From TrEMBL:
One of its GO terms (biological process) is double-strand break repair via homologous recombination. It is found in: Chromosome; Nucleus. The keyword ATP-binding applies. This is Structural maintenance of chromosomes protein. Residues 437-550 form the SMC hinge domain. It comes from the Eukaryota. Signal peptide: none annotated.
């Protein structure tokens, strides 16, 4: 298949000992090459290699700070080789059809070589490489041509219009044009400054001419100077008044600076507060980790204790076996000795022992029957006793809980919600005379219509109920003084508008909102709650499931939903957030009187009940009786066991004596028993060694020292101390601000008084110069008068004036000549700027049309809004089910990535670089958006004639086309 528009630029890429590849060769035969593979297969190494060879710095590729970081682990050098097709005929007599660019990377340095197809080196200089790149328009510093993995992730997730506009300017290379124009304007500015120096010299000459003319005039007319001095003295009087005005402005500036310092200190205080919160969270995390480690140590300690217990049990078992073998050995030895003493006669006592054993066994059976009967009766009693205990425990717990509730509800009223000093604050506010009406607290201005929503509405308005609203700054200062006096800190809000009606808002007809269940007395309170708490967009829903369904449907004019229990449900970043409010001890709209009566009635009912504990006593009696019976059974079992041992011993003695009569094997058995005893003693020594190792590990666990959290606690305390210091500094600043304000008012009064005095004295107000300058002028005129009395040579003054006029004409001619040149240059620069703006606007218009076309393919409506004045690029897109186009922040991850790919495709036709390289462009896309984006990319490379290299970690089943090569990399073997 032929590709008429396609001009191949990169023929192949070869990586040797580079990153994770030992040797990788990729030939680019078609317009589009797709590189795919699993994570760790080295896909991005292909892009890093191309960028590294074709002019990119190592740190800009975000794969390390230097070249040596890109050498394969265990190797000392690496080679990256890119072969370019010389279809434009660069130095054709030397390079012919192919240009090879090779980068050799060592641990300490890296070299570049530009060779022909026969590997003859043409140059090893970076300047020559930049010449080749410029000849083929390979501008890989442009992120739209060469979008690396990290750049791609940032680009796909960015929502900042300023950053998008900067990317548009860099990508379309308009930023370089702007830079050249700015340099030209800088040169013009420099020339203007130099002309300004000449102009200043010209003004100085003119000043000298005027001085000479003044001198000539003074010589001719000395009488008029006295009147001029009088006028200057009037001007000096006004200069003093104007200096007073400047002092007023200076005081006001100091006041503003102090206010700005207060704002800065408040910002520092907020940072420290955040640091304290972060430190507490980290402290909690460290303590949790130490707790987890302690649990692990305790678990291991239990395992060691269990293992030691098992080994000691095994040791005891072996000890018992040894003891048994010793007893058997001693027994057989004794039998042999006794048999020898009895001269071969066998005796036995087994019948008498069996008779005694049968009698004791029958007694044990009768006692066991008695024990079973008592156990059945005891179990029934214990069951009844537990039921009695549960009833008593539940009753006691209920009584304790009710006492706390009664105590709490007895002390509480709505005023207690605002703190213990609130009553004194309200009393003083009522006695204070304000300039205008003061509204507050807001809790007094609102009433709940439906008590069912008391908990939810209390949570929504919790932070605003104590707010006071004032109409002007003076009333705010008065209110702050009252709060400081009573040591309270209630929020104060100043009205931004004094409109008497409630602001217009979109009423939610479909759902019940917080605004619907409130009765608000004042319009300014309603406006404040709408602006700060969004009560018109906070809906109230009975059940959690229904709330989830409503929020998931993304209804218009709904910010979040609250259930009756106060749980907040909202949509955050495309996912549902379910927030359960904790730490709120008191709900403002709660009806405490009704709850208090219910608690008292329940307490009375519980106190009148008198539960009994009869089954517990009976259970104790049965337990005692069972203990006595069990002791008797154990005694008889011990007797039986003793009889069994005696019988067994007698039988063994009898059998052994019989064996001795027939053979001498007992002596061999004694030797065998001694050998077994020796082996068991050796096994005991091994067990003792294992127990010793475990006990050492146990000591190490006991001696383990937990991680110290003292540093974290010290940081928190230090931050608290710093925060207290800043708070004190803010208080001092506020006092300084008040002092500066008073100074400003005093200076203002003095300025007004002096100005009024001058006007009353008939002196007309004039724009005066500084007082020192006027004084110097008076002195100068007086000196001229004195000088003129001495000057007698008028001809010399005329000659000086003639000389100065000639100098003025020469410099003025030079100045006019250069001004014309500057205006010509400035006209050319402005013409270029106009053409640049026209070109930029045309590119922006074409990109907007192409973006709209590409998004319509997916069924979306995309809009690119360029604001060249503010340097902003807003990307908006209306997806299915939306009534209007929204910004990228309102889109899902897949929709945002699709919009980003559409933006890249809309800008590519304006770029001259013949190669486009993208890495992980589809990492955040869902399947539908990815398929459509891939189809758009394939269509672009099929029609545009550009060469493309796409790198993706995802499936490639949608990428197989005749004009597209798909290369799937396998994960390199680390053993290579």
């Amino acid at each position: 298949m032929s590709y008429e528009k396609f001009k191949k630029t990169i023929v192949s890429i070869e990586l040797i000992k580079f990153m994770c590849h030992s040797h990788l060769l990729i030939s680019l035969r078609k317009p589009l090459t797709i590189v795919s593979g699993c994570n760790g297969s080295g896909k991005s190494a292909v892009m890093v290699g191309i960028g590294l060879v074709l002019g990119q710095r190592a740190h800009s590729l975000e794969r390390g700070s230097s070249f040596k970081d890109l050498i394969k682990s265990g190797e000392s050098n690496a080679i990256v080789r890119v072969v370019l097709e010389n279809h434009k005929g660069f130095k054709r007599e030397f390079f012919k059809e192919k240009i090879i660019v090779e980068k050799r990377i060592g641990m300490r340095s890296a070299t570049i070589s530009i060779m022909n197809g026969e590997r003859r080196v043409w140059s090893m200089r970076r300047e020559d490489l930049e010449l080749v790149l410029e000849f083929f328009s390979l501008r890989f510093e442009n992120p739209l041509n060469f979008l690396s993995q990290e750049q791609s992730k940032r680009f796909l997730s960015t929502m900042n219009p300023e950053m998008l506009y900067e990317l548009f300017m860099q990508g379309t290379e308009m930023a370089e044009v702007c830079k050249l124009n700015d340099e030209s304007m800088g040169n013009v500015k420099t020339m203007r400054e130099r002309i300004g120096l000449v102009d200043e010299e010209l003004r100085e000459i003119e000043k000298q001419i005027k001085d000479e003319e003044s001198r000539l005039e003074i010589i001719k007319n000395v009488k008029t100077m006295a009147r001029t001095i009088a006028e200057l003295e009037d001007e000096m009087a006004w200069a003093k008044v104007n200096e007073r005005r400047i002092e007023v402005e200076r005081c006001f500036k100091k006041f503003q600076d102090k206010q700005e310092e207060i704002d800065r200190e408040n910002a520092k205080l907020e940072e420290l507060s955040q640091a304290i919160r972060d430190g507490r969270e980290k402290l909690t995390m460290v303590e949790s980790e130490e707790m987890e480690k302690k649990r692990s140590r305790d678990k291991r300690k239990e395992e060691i204790d269990s293992a030691i217990g098992k080994l000691r049990m095994k040791y005891r078992e072996i000890e018992n076996d040894c003891l048994e073998l010793r007893e058997t050995r001693d027994f057989k030895s004794r039998i042999a000795i006794d048999f020898e003493k009895q001269d071969g006669v066998v005796k036995g006592l087994v019948p008498q022992l069996e008779e005694r054993y049968n009698k004791v066994s029958s007694e044990i059976e009768s006692l066991n029957e008695r024990m079973e009967k008592l156990a059945v009766e005891g179990e029934e009693c214990r069951k009844r006793a537990r039921e009695e205990e549960d009833v008593l425990s539940e009753r006691q717990s209920n009584i304790l809980h009710l006492r706390k509730q009664i105590e709490f509800y007895s002390k509480n009223d709505q005023n207690s919600f605002f703190g213990p000093n609130f009553g004194g604050v309200i009393d003083e506010i009522s006695k204070t005379r304000f300039n205008e009406k003061v509204v507050g607290p807001i809790g007094f201005e609102v009433k709940l219509k439906d008590p069912r929503w008391s908990k939810a509405v209390s949570i929504v308005l919790n932070s605003t109920l104590s707010t006071f609203i004032v109409m002007n700054k003076l009333d705010k200062d008065i209110l702050l003084k009252i709060f400081r006096k009573h040591k309270v800190d209630f929020p104060i809000s100043a009205l931004s508008t004094r409109a008497p009606e409630v602001i217009k808002y979109k009423r939610n007809e479909k759902y019940k909102t917080v605004l619907d269940v409130l009765e608000i007395r004042s319009p300014c309170v309603a406006n404040y709650l709408i602006i700060t708490a969004s009560i018109e967009q906070t809906i109230l829903v009975e059940g959690r499931k229904e709330a989830y369904e409503i929020i998931r449907s993304r209804p218009g004019f709904v910010e979040c939903a609250y259930t009756k229990n106060g749980d907040k449900i909202r949509l955050v970043g495309g996912s549902m957030s379910d927030f359960v409010t904790r730490g709120v001890d008191r709900f403002y709209f709660e009806n405490t009187r009704e709850k208090l009566e219910r608690c008292k009635m329940e307490m009375k009912r519980l106190m009148e009940e008198k539960p009994e504990k009869s089954w517990g006593k009976r259970s104790e009696e049965i337990r005692d009786e069972m203990g006595k019976v069990n002791e008797e059974i154990e005694h008889r079992r011990r007797v039986c066991k003793s009889l069994e041992a005696e019988m067994e011993q007698e039988k063994q003695i009898h059998d052994a004596q019989m064996e001795i009569m027939h053979s001498d094997e007992i002596y061999e058995e004694i030797k065998s028993l001694e050998h077994q005893i020796s082996l068991l003693e050796k096994k005991q020594d091994e067990i003792n060694e294992e127990i010793g190792a475990l006990e050492r590990e146990q000591r190490e666990i006991k001696e383990y020292k937990i991680a110290s959290t003292e540093n974290l606690r010290q940081d928190i305390c230090r931050n608290k101390a710093e925060a207290s210091k800043i708070e004190r500094k803010i208080d001092l600043c506020r006092l300084d601000a008040l002092r500066l304000k008073e100074e400003h008012l005093k200076e203002m009064e003095a300025y007004s008084l002096e100005k009024r005095r001058l006007v009353e004295n008939g002196k007309k107000e004039i724009d005066s110069r500084p007082e020192d300058e006027i004084r110097k002028e008076i002195i100068r005129i007086k000196a001229q008068i004195d000088m003129c009395k001495e000057v007698e040579d008028e001809k010399k003054t005329l000659a000086t004036m003639e000389h100065l006029r000639k100098m003025k004409n020469v410099k003025k001619g030079l100045l006019d000549e250069y001004k014309k040149k500057i205006e010509s240059i400035l006209s050319d620069v402005e013409s270029r700027i106009t053409k640049r703006d026209a070109m930029r606007n045309e590119i922006a218009r074409n990109a907007a049309l192409e973006f709209s076309r590409l998004t319509r393919i997916r069924g979306y409506e995309g809009v690119l809004e360029f604001d060249h004045e503010k340097k902003r690029l807003d990307v908006k897109m209306k997806v299915h089910g939306q009534s209007e186009a929204g910004s990228r922040s309102m889109l899902s991850g897949g929709e945002r990535s699709f919009a980003s790919v559409s933006l890249i495709l809309s800008l590519w036709p304006s770029l001259s670089c013949p190669i486009k390289v993208l890495d992980e462009f589809d990492v955040f896309m869902d399947n539908l958006n990815r398929k459509q984006a891939i189809r758009m990319l394939l269509d672009f490379f099929k029609e545009s004639g550009f060469q493309g290299i796409l790198i993706t970690p995802l499936g490639v089943e949608d990428l197989f086309e005749d004009f597209c090569d798909v290369i799937v990399l396998e994960k390199p073997d680390k053993s290579e």
